[in-house]
Request: fold
Amino acid sequence: MKQEYTLTIYTENQVGLLNRIAIMFSRRKINIESMNTSPSEIEGIHRFNILINETEDVVRKIGRQIEKQVDVLKAYFNTNDTIIWQELALYKVPTDVIAEKVKVERLLRTYGARVVAIMSDYTIFETTGQREETDTLLKVLGEYGLIEFVRSARIAIIKDSKGFHEKLKEFELAEPTHHIIDEPISADEAASKVV
Amino acid sequence: MQTETINEQIDAAVAPIEITGGDAVMRALVAEGVETIFGYPGGAIMPIYDALYDYRDHLEHILVRHEQGGIHAGQGYARTSGKTGIVFATSGPGATNLVTGLADAMIDSTPLVCITGQVFAHLLGTDAFQETDVINITTPVTKWNYQVTDANEIPEALAKAFYIAKSGRPGPVLIDITKNAQVQKFNYTGYKTCNHIRSYRPKPVVRKEFTTAAAAMINKAERPLVIFGQGVILGCAENEFKAFIEKSGMPAAWTILGLSALSTDHPLNVGMLGMHGNYGPNMLTNECDVLIAVGMRFDDRVTGRLDRYAKQAKVIHLDIDPSEIDKNVKADVPVWGDCKETLPMITALLEKKDHRQWVNKFSECMEKEKEAVINEELNPSTDSLTMGEVIEQLNVLTKGDAIIVTDVGQHQMVACRYAKFNQTKSNITSGGLGTMGFALPAAIGAKYGAKDRTVVAVIGDGGIQMTIQELGTIMQNNINVKILILNNRFLGMVRQWQDLFNEKRYSFVDIASPDYVAVAKGYKIEGNSIEERKDLINALETMLNHDGPYLLEVFVGKENNVFPMVPQGCGVSEIRLK
Reply:
């Protein structure tokens, strides 16, 4: 079954890596719904968030292909219930409409919109939230002469992640892979969505 | 200067010395133990070639006739030597001509370091003369690529390139060096080989529980079938593999890239898998109870229709590349790791067994296949020669000791089916990508990679015409390769499909050939052309005994088809014998 998956990818900061990751999706004719790259909790390590609509099987395979890339440290994928995610939206509305129609001001307040800039001819509002919230406000403002709208990519934090500091230590061991794990794989590990 | 002295100098260069970027490239190559380079110069790589001029006594550079020839030669070299192939090309068209070879090396896991020249950094993105965005063009077909714009980066970039190309699952790496970086003088502090990149894990962690589970599953198996690929060769695990199958007497079948990892006359070697593989391994894939895949990736040419592939069997999959596990066939026991490490761990836990009855089933299938296909192919009742009998005679004369390089098509399938191999790294072919034109240049590289061995390039009349210009390379360097053209005056494999599936609508498969002997003669290469059975042995013998390169064209039956065949979209047990 196709559903929304959010990939979280920890990478080195390398020119060309964005393309190398993006072509993993275009090669399979998968549309990227949104993509964000940003610093992570560790200096020098970048974090991608990529949102796609796919089946778990496909996401797992792509995750492994991505993790195989030389400059990628780790890739995780999550369904929406295992992450906290947000998107940011900006709305440009004619200032006179806001001034004249009390209803609009109330609406904006209801949706938790914040004023970012007020000009004589337009005002820019910002909301942060999930898709449904920013969409609803978009629809409502459409009726009041919305001039411009833009929404950012999804950014997400994995609920049960302990961050990357500990993992990075493993990666930095000179010979991280020359050992054999004796103890069996834990049930948790087997069941986790870690790629 | 001896190589050792250069090495010492390279290591000892603690106090910085001022050298050019081009010189740094040469020092890196020498430090990495490179002996042979295949390449073609051009404007944007001239400073590197200028530096090479001073190193021409330690680095053998083979001037090819086309960059595609250069990279296929690099592949052939890597495949027979087990080392990394080195290729030089200039920017623009030089670099784009590498793309087919990169894709081929990527899909067949061949370690290459390709160095391309690039326009001056300040001209990047200006559509400068011979500028092309080689990094983005080659991203999907390289394991890693990197553009160097400053000479200071060269030692580290090349050290990483060599490490990445060869470690883990090997693959091609491309380093694009702008011209300014090649001429730039910088303070060189010595070359340090790379053996760790924090974001890169060449080998996954081996989990003992899975090797234990695999052994337990094999011990319980009544009809185990081992299928092996190039991973055995790339992991240098031929002996470990042999010990593994021998201990519990398991039949083993190969993918075409796995061919020669296990001697073809080994009693447990039951033959070839896949579309034109042997009848037994294909049929019995759907009868085994445990399928053990070693260093192979379940290509669609091996599995046929996946939903009819080994559904009854438990699957154990050994691979160094975790992304291959569960990619096409779901593994019940995933054994991540280098099979050089994991195979002995499993073997140690195996019970000594022989599955004689089960192995006999393969022999019975082979009898059936002989009756239906092989006998007629090897001892034909027709006047015209068959490809199979040519390969069979070659076996007799080379005793299975030759390296056989094949192109793509019918002759490739026939050569892989019938050639005998005693030694590993002896079957060189374009497997995953199926690159026509591969064989002639790859044979050049194969010879440089194994100078003491006989190299026979078996090529069809289609493929030879794709890279025939490399006869020039053979001429200039007097490279002792034997070129055996199996000429059926058709693009045979496409014609076969048109025959079987398109009601003989032979659409553009009728290909004319030049007089190959005359062409060879033009290149000062001796040759001969035959079409009668009575001339075959002598002609092959003359070719093999000739001191130097030799071209032999053998005319074979025009409309012979390769069987058995698993038609596309069918399951492996729907294999056709005619």
